[in-house]
TrEMBL record:
Compositionally biased spans, kind Pro residues: 1-11
Protein name from the UniProt record: Integral membrane protein
Keyword Membrane included in the entry's annotation: yes
Organism: Streptomyces candidus
Region Disordered, annotated ranges: 1-22
Key words, A-Z: Membrane, Transmembrane, Transmembrane helix
Superkingdom of the organism of origin: Bacteria
Ranges annotated as spanning the membrane: 131-149, 161-181, 224-241, 288-309, 321-341, 353-376, 396-419, 431-453, 482-502, 553-574, 594-615
Amino acid sequence: MPPAPAVPDGPAPEAVAPDARVPQAAAPGIRVPEILTPRAAAPEVLVPAGATPGTPPALELELLVHGVGGATPEEMLDDPRTVRVTGDGTAAVFRRSEDVDAEDRPTDYRDKPIPEAYVWCNLTSGNGIRALWLLLLPFMVVNLAHWMRPASDGHPRILRLYGVLVRLVALSLTFLLVGAACEVALDLTAWQCGGSTTCAGRKSWLGFLSTAHGGWWSQPGRRIALAALVPAALTGLLWYLSHRTWSAYESQQPLPAAPDDTEGAASGPALGRPGFWYGRRLVARLRAAHTAAGFLTVAAALAVTTARYDRSAAHTVPDVLGWALQGALAAGGIVVVWVVCRRGRTESRFDAALDRALVTLLPATALAALLLSVLYAGWSRPGWTSAGRLGGADRAFGLLTLAQLVLILTLGAVAFFLHRGAPVARSAMRGLGGPAVAMLACALGGVMTGGVAQRVADWLDGSATPGMSTRPAEGVAGPPVLLTWQASVIPPLLCVLLLLALRYGVRTWHTRGSLAARVEADYPGENPDPVRTRRIALARAAASLTDLAPRMLAVLSGATLALGGVALLGAHLYDEVPGRAAKGTPSAVEAFAHTSQALGSWLVGFGFLLFVTWGRRAYRDPKARRTIGILWDVGTFWPRAAHPFAPPCYAERAVPDLTWRMATWTERTGGRLVISGHSQGSVLSAAALWQLPRRTRRRVALLTYGAPLERLYGRWFPAHFGPDCLRHLHDEVACWRNLWRHTDPIGGPVRVDPGAGRQPVDHDALLDPLAHGRTRAHPLPAPVLGHSDYQADPAFAVERDKLLDRLPETALPRQDRAGRRAGG
């Protein structure tokens, strides 16, 4: 009597929603395989060993996931004829045209897996306009600081404090960005240049604002009220981009968790929790708070300046209105800070709720306050004239910079405490990576703010130097002194970078010499060529520089912190533009600061032009667009947990895509699957595996190559890719193999202890190049591949086949793959 039919060990029925497995419609000209279309009857159940000889074998699928920089499906599948089987123009799964109906012909794939390619490069580099995301770089960097917290054993309140501090730093960057826009539009353009007959006369487009014309707009309050449209429009644009990109990229719902997996996910790695890749509620709250913060910043710039004049002019009613409006704005600021601190991410469960009242009312109320401020500032005040800088700007930027320094130092203390409680040996900077990155985000924001403000002041003042005119009516006073000092720190920072580059360049040169003997030992039986040996050794030495990145960041962030303190102190001690000589010859400090400020101003202006030029080139040149996309492949993997205006997280689309594909295919076919990830694709593959139901995860093999899982993510993000997390992944999947090279600057070993009786995860380092010189197998010099073309190594196919052989059987018994091929 034959045994009962075996039911494929797939995810529980409730783990995959039926309507999500079946696409509603296929794109024109795209053939959808049978596994993606509804069937009238139940799917065929595979018959186990001992059944009739005509029973088809179990299918095998190799799901390829590319890495940074992207790839075409033709390149990944090594075939010019590819077909999209599921997905859209942004991210999709492709097959070779001959493999589209592979599930209908299982006997044709008895000794080979079905290759599939998941292409996600358009999530980061598909549109040339996305090159302008470079201007949001500080927001992206501070968002990384949230995820770089140290691993912790308990201390939930300290963990919450870490997240609150990072979110406050992110909020300060929004204040800084909008404040910079106010400085350029309200202070430099409307207040200073509009109030100067000489400056307004040089700019014809500012003629209607000039006091010389005596028109309706000549009053200072009306000029700054009109200029407030610029920062207000910038805030609205950031809100729109954040909302639109979230709807386009991050609104994909993850695979529903099976009931028996919920408890295990809550206690396992964070990336396996049901709500990790769906942060709608927090992003919406932060978007509302940061949008309100932007509007309130513009309103405060108008109200404080106008109220100061009303107090000096002894106008009773306007003075009372000014105090009331400033009080309302202060209360609004407190509410914004409370909203930012009140709630963090919800990861333990799938949370689709939305605080609609808060999300709607907070920005609307702030916008109403801005409109009231515009009306208040625009009221007629015939005796008001503008002179010098806009009142309160120096103090506002000084307090904001001081608050950032205090937040960074506090964040460093919290990170040190967390790391000391649960130290991870290879954590970058001993757990201080997050504070260091947050410091760089503030530095980027400060440098961009100071440099752009100084550059605009130079442009408005023509050939004169801002702040140097002895008659304010003939020129502009320039930006606040602190912004000038922030621009002046750029040359010293560049000197630090240059010294670091020289230091590690010399180190690489010396390391190359010490590696020569080891390189020759890796190629026994060949006649070594000294020139070739040095070239290979140099590639290995250059690749090892990645491991020194924590030291580089420590030096750079420390120098940034010190120079930021110097800029703050200099702005406090020197209340005039550096280098301005009120009496006699300027001091050495003033002269140095003035020279550094001038260089920094031009460098930032040049950098801004590079941003615009690069963006225009990326709009026209796909290669340049792909280069810019690489930046976001690394920086936007993580969800927006700290700053809602950061570039969108592509993993919130890619991870659900991969999870749904693996779960539905294994359930429909009962086949076995190996997911093969290169570089950043290995990180996406690991994240998708954590999201799979446990029953499905134990039937999937993982092949990684050029993987930064431990070398970069494990060191910089120890709470999410630390040793315990990678060990958990190894224990949960059926089998895992990792390929790496000494010449790879990104990938490396994952350093997972396999435990007794289990095969190691890391393969021995692959030879690169495959041959030292000319051999029978390689008559021409083999290239040094570094991070690319892992599939060209013979070990790739061997290890993939071994993984498939180690997967648990679901249907017919398998022979040894090599023996089966030998038998025909």
